[in-house]
Amino acid sequence: MPDNVRELRSKPPETEKITINLGYVDLGHVDLMVQEGFYSNRTDFIRTAIRNQLERHADVVKQSYARKSLDLGLRDYSREQLEAARRAGEMLHINVLGLASIGHDVTPELARATIASVSVLGALHASPLVKAALADRMR
């Protein structure tokens, strides 16, 4: 690679793929709603249903993540932040509702030296080696 060309870090996806199992009749109802034009596709129907349920239970959810001291949304942990924590002698407790992302340049050794616990409701993006190094600290 030429000296004046740098590889850009890829942007993490904004969604996480999940798989669900539905009974044939429920799936038929979803397809009917799509066919009748209420939703653009199955995914649109499912996302809307999930959002409606989250809105319906919003007060309980807010109380829960406040009680559990969860960071809400996207939380990045860079190599620089972890190195600063190591210099300060601090151990991090990662508690996220959303997406927690540990930098691609964080080594397993640095992660173990600076991360005391990991609790993520949503998704954790980290290298397979870092995930393996923190496996005994994940709740």
UniProtKB/TrEMBL annotation:
Q: What is the lineage of its organism?
A: Bacteria, Pseudomonadati, Pseudomonadota, Alphaproteobacteria, Hyphomicrobiales
Extract the InterPro entries matched here: Arc_rbn_hlx_hlx, RHH_8, Ribbon_hlx_hlx
Q: Which PANTHER family match?
A: BLL4998 PROTEIN
- Name the domain of life this protein comes from: Bacteria
Any GO BP annotation:
regulation of DNA-templated transcription
One matching Pfam family is RHH_8
Q: What is this protein called?
A: CopG family transcriptional regulator
